[in-house]
Amino acid sequence: MGQIEWAMWANEQALAAGLSECGGQRGLGGLGDPRLGDAAGVLVCLLEYPRSKRQKGSTMERCGQKYLTAVVKLFGPLTRNYYIRAILHAALAVPAGFLLSTILGTVCLGIASGIYLLAAVRGEEWRPIEQKPRERPKMGDTMKQPPS
Q: What are the tens digits of pLDDT across the range 87-136?
């Protein structure tokens, strides 16, 4: 059997957590302002929407991912390193754990943080999916020979 790529699972888990945190009743951990919870959820969604390129095989790109990939690439090692993502998700999960209305996002972020830590220990890091440049067809291949 092949090597499991843990970051792929953490990405899906964290994206679910970010979507769960957006639009919460009280916001992130009852910090008073629901906009803080929404902002944390949007931050997680923006960070996690672009999938990483798989080590082996092909990777299915999400719709519109190339635009957010450019943003994630802009921050370089801060977004590429899975240790940093694990710490970020764990830090966002702590205040969200104090309210029952945000417990689903908290659990998802905690699980994602643990999986990202495992992926980081195993040496994985985020790599952008880059489109291969299309080769121009050669003249001889596209032109048909006239009948003789």
A: 999 988 887 777 666 778 888 889 999 999 999 999 998 888 877 767 76
pTM flag (> 0.85): no
Task: Report the chain's terminal Cα–Cα distance, integer Å.
Answer: 55
* Token pair belonging to 18: 């970010």
Domain ranges for the chain:
3-51+66-122
Q: State the CB neighbour count (10 A cutoff) for residue 58.
A: 8
Region of residue 123 (left: phi > 0; alpha: psi -120 to 50; beta: else): left
Helix (H) or strand (E) holding 73: helix 65-74
Distance CA(116)–CA(118), nearest Å, equals: 5
Helix (H, G, I), strand (E, B) or coil at 21: helix
Residue 13 has which token pair? 């888990």
